[in-house]
Every structure is written in C-alpha cells, then in structure tokens.
C-alpha cells in the first residue's frame, strides 16, 4: 500500500471498530492499482456524518449535505463520505436529493466508470463489483451499468470519460462511446465552470489523442461553448497535440491562436468559458507573443511584457502551431533585458514630483514612457538621466 493509505489506515480502523464499514474509494484506489502517485485519499463509509463526527476529535463540515465530512488526522484531511444512492435527476446535472444508504454496493453503483468504482479495505483487499480491475488492466473506460442511463442522469460524465481517456491513455469501450454520441447534446445543460475543469484536464492529459479523438468523433465538442464556431480550426489543433498542453494558460492561448481570434475577441471568448480575469490578461499577452513567434522573434518590449512566466507559454503555442522551439533563446534574451519589472525602474513617481513634475495622469504617462525607453535600451536605467528625460518630455507638452 502507498504511504498515503498506510497513514490513513488508523482512520478506517477507528470507523470499523465502532461497528461501521469504511473503504478507500475513487481515484486513489484506481491510481494505486495503476502504480501511479495519488493526490487525495477519499473514504466511503456506512457511518452517517453525525456518527463520523462523534468518532473523531477534529472534523470539518466540507459538504455535510452530501454526506461529506473531512477528518483531520496528523495534519492530513480525509474526505469521508457516507454511502449514497443518487436516484432521480431531473435536470441532467445533479441528483435532486441525496439518500444515505448503509450498503457499499449501492454507493459503488452510482459511480461513473468501472475503474472509479473500486473500493479497498484497510488491509488492501479490493472490492470489485463491476469488473473494474479487468478494465484497468485492459486500459478501458466503461460506464457502470447502462451507459445511456448514466449519461442521461449526469451529462458531465461524458466529459469525464474523455478526460480520463486523455489522462490515463485509455480507450472508451464502444458501448460507452456510442452512448456519449447519443447524449452529447445534454452537455449544453452542464454549468460551464464544470465543463471547463474537464476540458482543461482533457487538453493537459499525458495522452491527449486518446481523449481528443473521442471528444471529436462523439460530437461532444459541439456542445462546448464557442467551439461550433471554429470546427475546422478545433479539429486541426486537436490533431496536432502529441503531448498534453503544460497548463491552463497554454491551453487557452493555443485555442485563441488556433481560432485566430483578434485581441479584442479574446476577452469575450474566455468569458463564455467563465475563466478568471487573470487568465484573460495572461492569454492576451501570450497570444500576442505567440503570433509574433509564428514569423519572427520577439522584440525587447514583447519579451518584457511576457516575462519569465508567459514566454514558455507563447513558445509552446507557437511550436504546436509549427514554429521552431526557441524557449532557451527567449529566456536568455529576457534575462538580458535592462530591467525586468516596473519596480526595477530607477525612478518613481515620487522622484518625478520632487523634480517638479505635477501629479496627475501625465505623471503615469511619463513613467510609462521612461519604462519603455529603458526596456528598449534607448535610455540607461540611471536615476539622474531618467529625471532629466522626464523634465524634457514634460516641457515638450
Ligand atoms: P482525480 O484523480 O481527477 O481526482 P477521481 O476519480 O478521484 O479522479 P473525482 O472527481 O475526484 O475523480 O471523483 C471521485 C470519485 O467520485 C470518482 O472516482 C467516482 O467514483 C465518483 N464520481 C465523481 N464524479 C462523478 C460523477 N459525475 N458521476 C458519478 N460518479 C462520480
Ligand atoms: Mg479525486
């Protein structure tokens, strides 16, 4: 057993000594059997949330209405969820009500895929009611039970299928893929924020082709915001990805460049996907640089605006779209810039005011001009020379 499970064993033992059942469940069991590192350990139990809270000194109600309590043990938090059965879904999104049950089998039955429906006892024994171990070995994604019904209940599961295929390099079995194709339009009912999470995992997975191919062939892509306006470009960029994109910013910058969006279209595009404003700003900058990199190098001002974080983003995107890899050279050129941040400029607004320049909007303009001239080596980053230049510029107005 991995160390994370060893550390959590006493928690399961405490629950069991009180007469309840407790199991490791979900991604951590799947990833352990695959020999992959695990991130969070999830526990499923027959005990009700109140019963769990009586058994442990330190707990946090992280999702008590869904039956989830976090148990804090030696600095680690364990999400512990009461066995549930989720029966009626009327809006294709989430169960109308959560029913707590005392049976593990009921709980495993409502899980999405056979490889995610494995449970493990504290002693390492695996409970496999849906042949998930065979599917893990054969590297297959298969819905638990009737695939048509499962996607009808919760349409997000279709995006989860393709993202697991990408992350694990698994194949979706034909029956499950056919059910996705038949229900793809239900994805439009899912909150964009939740689709976005799965889309990013799809693009950043280690084997993107394994997920992108069914994403395209099942038609799921058509029910993602904005994608149907860019069919040819989307398909082209998906076929180009041989390795996953490194992160969220790179993924969005790639799509923006592939769709050939203008700078003013980036904000509205990403807003439809409900990304943060911080991502929008970063993508605008990186996309501009990626555009330049398609045909030329970056000038000093572009290097400066991108900075150390966004240069690899712009470079990765340009490379995926066919440009040569220039990451090392770009970072070296950035290193050689006279200044790397506005803070490094040798004058401040206060210095300029002391030199007699009036406060106001033109002070900010002056500082921006000085910053540009220093970055582009038109002026040295020298306090006296910058003040002189500011006075000259101010008097010219
Ligand atoms: P990851 O490694 O990405 O966290 P995971 O399998 O742990 O993968 P989670 O989203 O953390 O995925 O969900 C934990 C478990 O809950 C899943 O393994 C699955 O058993 C169940 N689950 C999650 N979302 C759904 C869903 N939409 N429908 C059915 N079961 C689900
Ligand atoms: Mg998980």
How would you describe this protein?
This protein has 397 residues and is α+β, with helices and mostly antiparallel strands. The chain has four domains: 1-138, 2-Layer Sandwich (Beta Polymerase, domain 2); 140-240, Hydrophobic Seed Protein, CATH 1.10.110; 245-337, Methane Monooxygenase Hydroxylase, Chain G, domain 1, CATH 1.20.58; 343-396, Serum Albumin, Chain A, Domain 1 (Orthogonal Bundle), CATH 1.10.246. It is built from 19 helices and eleven strands. The protein has helices spanning 3-17, 27-33, 49-55, 104-109, 132-137, 147-153, 156-168, 174-183, 192-204, 208-217, 231-240, 248-258, 263-272, 277-293, 300-320, 327-335, 349-354, 361-375, 383-396; strands at residues 22-25, 42-45, 59-63, 68-73, 76-82, 84-85, 99-100, 119-120, 126-127, 140-141, 171-172. The strands form three sheets. Strands 3-4-5-2-1-8-9 form a seven-stranded mixed sheet. A two-stranded antiparallel ribbon has the order 6-7. Strand 3 (59-63) and strand 4 (68-73) form a beta hairpin. The radius of gyration is 27 Å and the shape is elongated. The mean pLDDT is 95. Bound molecules: adenosine-5'-triphosphate and magnesium ion. Its cofactor is Mg(2+). CTP binds at residues 27, 30, 111, 154, 157, 160, 163.
């Amino acid at each position: 057993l991995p160390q994370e499970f060893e550390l959590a064993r006493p928690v399961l033992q405490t629950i069991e000594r009180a007469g309840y059942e407790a199991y490791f469940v979900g991604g951590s069991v799947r990833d352990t059997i695959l020999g992959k590192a695990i991130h969070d350990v999830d526990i499923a139990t027959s005990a009700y949330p109140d019963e769990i809270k009586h058994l442990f000194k330190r707990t946090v109600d992280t999702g008590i209405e869904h039956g989830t309590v976090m148990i804090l043990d030696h600095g680690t938090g364990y999400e512990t969820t009461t066995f549930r059965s989720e029966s009626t879904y009327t809006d294709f999104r989430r169960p109308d009500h959560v029913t707590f049950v005392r049976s593990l089998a009921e709980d495993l039955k409502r899980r999405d895929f056979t490889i995610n429906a494995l449970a493990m006892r504290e002693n390492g024994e695996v409970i496999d009611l849906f042949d998930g171990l065979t599917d893990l070995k054969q590297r297959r994604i298969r819905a638990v039970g009737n695939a048509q019904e499962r996607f009808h209940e919760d349409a997000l599961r279709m995006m989860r299928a393709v993202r697991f295929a990408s992350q694990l390099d698994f194949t979706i079995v034909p029956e499950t893929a056919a059910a996705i194709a038949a229900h793809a339009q239900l994805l439009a009912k899912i909150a964009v924020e939740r689709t976005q999470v799965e889309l990013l995992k799809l693009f950043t997975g280690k084997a993107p082709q394994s997920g992108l191919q069914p994403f395209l062939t099942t038609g799921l892509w058509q029910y993602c915001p904005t994608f149907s306006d860019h069919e040819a470009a989307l398909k082209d960029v998906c076929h180009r990805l041989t390795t996953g994109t490194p992160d969220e910013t790179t993924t969005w910058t790639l799509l923006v460049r592939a769709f050939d969006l203008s700078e003013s279209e980036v904000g509205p595009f990403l807003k439809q996907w409900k990304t943060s404003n911080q991502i929008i700003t970063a993508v605008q900058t990186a996309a501009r640089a990626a555009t330049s990199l398609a045909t030329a190098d970056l000038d000093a001002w572009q290097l400066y605006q991108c900075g150390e974080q966004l240069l690899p983003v712009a470079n990765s995107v340009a490379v995926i779209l066919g440009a040569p890899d220039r990451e090392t050279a770009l970072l070296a050129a950035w290193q050689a810039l006279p200044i790397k941040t506005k803070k490094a400029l040798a004058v401040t607004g206060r210095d300029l005011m002391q030199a007699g320049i009036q406060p106001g909007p033109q002070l900010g303009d002056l500082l921006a001009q000085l910053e540009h001239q220093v970055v582009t080596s038109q002026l040295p980053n020298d306090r006296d020379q910058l003040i002189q230049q500011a006075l000259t510029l101010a008097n010219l107005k």
